[in-house]
Structures are given as C-alpha cells and as structure tokens.
Amino acid sequence: MTFRIYDTATRSLRDFTPVREGHASIYLCGATPQALPHIGHVRSGVAFDILRRWLLAKGLDVAYVRNVTDIDDKILTKAAENNRPWWEWVSTYEREFTWAYDQLGVLPPSVEPRATGHVTQMVTYMERLIERGFAYATEDGSVYFDVDAWVKSPDGDYGHLSGNRVEEMEQGEPDSRGKRSPKDFALWKSAKAGEPSWPTPWGDGRPGWHLECSAMATYYLGPQFDIHCGGLDLQFPHHENEIAQSHAAGDPFANYWIHNHWVTMAGEKMSKSLGNVLSVPHILSLVRPVELRYYLGSAHYRSVLEYSEESLLEAAAGYRRIESFLNRALDSLGEVPVGEPTEAFVAAMDEDLAVPRALAEIHRAVTEGNKALGASDAESAAALAASARAMAEALGIDPLSEQWRETGAGASDAAIAALDVLIGEQLRLRATAREEKDWAVADAVRDRLTEAGVEVTDTADGPQWSLRDQ
Questions:
Q1: Residue 321: HSE in the Cβ half-sphere, 13 Å Cα cutoff
Q2: Which of 100, 228, 268, 456 has the highest CB neighbour number within 10 Å of its CB?
Q3: Which pLDDT value is given to residue 436?
Q4: Whole-Å CA distances, 222 to 27, 97, 251
Q5: Shortest CA distance to 401 belongs to which of 315, 310, 247, 293?
C-alpha cells in the first residue's frame, strides 16, 4: 500500500512521492529554548520521530533536519530578567530539550542547525528577495518582506496554507520607521542597544524568525525538499511566511506540510502563559520515559491530546501489557527476534500514521500471544512476539530494544520480581487447596488474582501468570 499523508497546504490526503527516489528529506521546526520543555513541546518531537521511523521502516534513506531557534525576543527577555547572558541562557535550555528528546527515545536529527550559525545564508536570501522586488530595507537597517508585492505577483499565494484572508493577517510585530504595511514581516531586525547583532549590507542587527528556517532548510535540504513539519500553532504566521519568502525567492520549498495538534488541559492549549505547563522532568516522576513516549504518541498526531494524570497512567498500563508479554515470551522462548509487522499494522501506518489503529493491532498480537503462551503453543507465541516487536519498534516503543531494556527495565524488573514472589505465594496456596479438594479456597484465590488484573493459566509445567490485557 502507498504511504499517504495529510498535507495541510492542500487539505487532503496525498500519496507520498519523494523528490528523489529512495530518499526522504524532512525539516522540523525545533525548539526555541527559553525554559524547561513541557510535554506540549515534545509531543511534536515524538510525532515526527514516528514519521521518520516509518519512512525508515519502508526502506527510505531519511535526511532529518531539526533546527534550534537560538536568538529570539523571548530568549533575550528571559535572559535579561534573570541577569544572565543570552547565549548562556539559551544553551542551558537547549541542553534540557536535548535531554528530553533523548529520554523519550527520539532519534537524533541528521543535523541540528542553530539560527546564529547561518547568518551568511540569511543575507544571501535577503539579497535574492530584494533583487526580485519582494523585500526592502528601511532607514534603520531593518529588512522587511513586502507582502503586497508578493500578493500582486503572478505566483503570489499568500494565505493558502493557513486559509487566512490577506487583509486580516496581522504579523504581531511592532511597526518601525520605514515599514510600508502592517502586513509586512521582518526578515532582519536592526540592532538595539544591549542586544546581540551581526553585520549585513544594510546594517547590524539580528535575524527575523521566519527567515531563519527558510535559510536553514534550503541550505541543508536544497531549494525543494519533501516534508516540512511543525506544530499546528506555527501555520500562521511562521509557516505562511516561510512559504511566501521561499517562493518569492524562487525556491519550490516543501512539497508537503504536516502539522501536529496540541496537548491541552481543560480544553486549553498547553502554554506557559496559561500557567498549565507540565514539564518533562515532572511527568517523568510519574511514569517511565518509554511510557510517556507511548502516551504522547498514542493519539493521532492531528488530534488534540487532552492531558490528565488518569489518561497518562492508563497509557503507561497499556505499554506495560506489551512489555509484560514480550518479557514473558523471552523467558519462555529464550529469544524473540524482530519479525515483520502485520498487514493491518502496515495499512494503519500507511494511512496518515494512524497510530491508534496500529496500537490496537499490537495489543491484538499481545492478547493472542498470551493465549499461545498459556497453551504452550511455542510456534504461535514466537511468531506473535516477533511481530509485536516489529510493530513496537516502528513506533519507537519496543520493550526489548537496547534503549528501553537498559533505561526502562530496572524499575519494571524489580516490580515484576516483587509481583512474582507475591503471586507465587498465592498460587502455592491455591495448589495446596486443590490438592486438598478445598475448592472454595482455590476459587477465592483465583478470584482475588483476577480482580487484581492477574490472569492465571494452568499448563503442563504448572500455573503461569500474566498481567491481563484489557
């Protein structure tokens, strides 16, 4: 089946056809590190890590660029409020984002460019836009993109990504001397006292947010590449402006635009301004990193993920059911190689990364696999376990992978060992009762275990237990 992805620009599911056969090129708008990352930030990282993993699973060579916006009004404000150098402030929180991505098993990008390292490419981009009549410099040394000039041009497509009307599109930027229209957006901001600046032909200053990404994306991936990713809130103004300046400069830019939805609390988008932020370190005090990854990836990437501690813990329990089965299969079979995903799983993933359906297929294999283990059907159990591993691996949550066995297994193994002692004692009590034909006690033991979510299977080798797949 052909991989299909929802393209925001056309508002349709489209077959994925890469620019270059056998190769996929992806640009993700990464972090603006100004504070601790919250789960709303890293949902994007997990969602598009799943995209990357699926393209890899389909045999494509993937170039994955995730930038860091390391110069920004918010960074400068936060650093000043805390009396710290801006470069130290941004570096401190960039490390926090990297730590969070690593904790959640997000694959490192092919390259992670920083805006301040690409001023040369930005200057070249502005020169191209000015030469083509779509940008202008002001008296104070700022450079603006001329929205009206682009809209009036034969190729002008401003507003097609976000669906906004041009006359209603306000940039949210302060007007400055020489700016022609409130619709125009800054490509370059003239130097201000106490702020960092870099030299350009028009004067010292610092980059505009939108220009940074166009310059970095095309520098690493070329003037035309496959997929541009980011959060839903970036459609306007950021991505709309990226498209405008890139197309105006003559670059085809991204063929597909993919946006993930928000994490919300009480129906509101998670943000620092709302005071409802949940940092990654805090959430990781409640669940293991792989369980948080499972949770963040469990909803469709285009759906709202409404956070609650109850839903987080339910997701963690769902992951542990997969983990319990594969550990049980490993103990019983001696080894569990990575097999092949089922057709149903492939069909789900090929249809716009339908992870909820894909997870349902994994849990179906887990349920059938537990039954096979209980029936001592080693052949069926082995096939189902190998398939479950392949499917979990595609989502980055394979419990038997090197990362999760090393970083996640300690607490789990200790818990399983403790459960084994406690449940083993109950099973011995049940066995004694059955030998003495005390069926009331034997049934009571089994009922208690069932209430606790423990499934007992009587086999030729004695009773075996597992946590029930619900």
A1: 23
A2: 228
A3: 82
A4: 11, 27, 9
A5: 293
Long-range CB contacts (within 8 A, 24+) of 108-111? 109/28, 109/30, 109/64, 109/65, 109/66, 110/62, 110/63, 110/64, 110/65, 110/220, 111/65, 111/220
Q: How far is CA 282 from the centre of its chain?
A: 18
The 10s digit of each residue's pLDDT in 184-224 is: 999 999 999 999 999 999 999 999 999 999 999 999 999 99
Q: How far is CA 275 from the centre of its chain?
A: 22
The alpha helices in 334-408, defined as continuous H runs, are: 343-350, 355-374, 378-394, 402-407
Compute the average pLDDT of residues 258-265.
94
The model carries a pTM of 0.86
Give tens-digit pLDDT for 219-238: 999 999 999 999 999 999 99
Separation of CA 26 from chain center: 13
Compute the distance between CA of residue 388 and CA of residue 372 in angstroms, rounded to an integer.
14
Q: Can you tell me the mean pLDDT for 78-105? A: 97
Helix or strand holding residue 65 (H, E): strand 61-66
* Cα distance between residue 198 and residue 408, in whole Å: 45
- 């059907």: which residue's tokens? 377
Dihedral sign (CA 53, 58, 63, 69): negative
Distance of CA 364 to the CA centre of its chain: 25
Residue 410 confidence (pLDDT) = 41
Residue type, 5: I
Does residue 157 surpass a pLDDT of 50?
yes
DSSP state of 226: E
